[in-house]
Amino acid sequence: MADIPLASVERLMRKAGAERVSVGGATELRDVLEEIGKEISEKAARFAKHAGRKTVKAEDVKLAR
């Protein structure tokens, strides 16, 4: 199950200049964003663990990005 609402993805696409967004287009972008977000989150968690922390901080996400 997807975690990011399609309405949010559609809004993002409209802000980027899309006049109309199909359900398929929004769904595909949502899947891509979730995959990228998961990869960055995993890297950020590793950075936090390496630093001896359980909490992922903004600096970890920036490094992981």
How would you characterize this protein structure?
This protein has a single domain, classed as Histone, subunit A (Orthogonal Bundle), CATH 1.10.20.10. Helix content is 69%, strand content 0%. The chain has 3 helices and no strands. The chain has helices at residues 6-15, 23-50, 58-64. The longest helix has 28 residues, at 23-50. The protein is elongated and about 45 Å long. The model has no long low-confidence stretch (mean pLDDT 97).
The CATH architecture classification is Orthogonal Bundle
Helix content: 55-70%
Find the CATH topology: Histone, subunit A
Inertia-based shape: elongated
CATH superfamily: Histone, subunit A
Regarding CATH, which class? Mainly Alpha
Unreliable parts:
none
Rg calculated over all Cα atoms:
15 Å
**What is the tally of helical segments?**
3
Largest sheet: none
The chain-level mean pLDDT equals: 97
Provide a compact summary of the structure.
The protein has 65 residues and is mainly α. It contains 3 helices and no strands. The chain has one domain: Histone, subunit A.
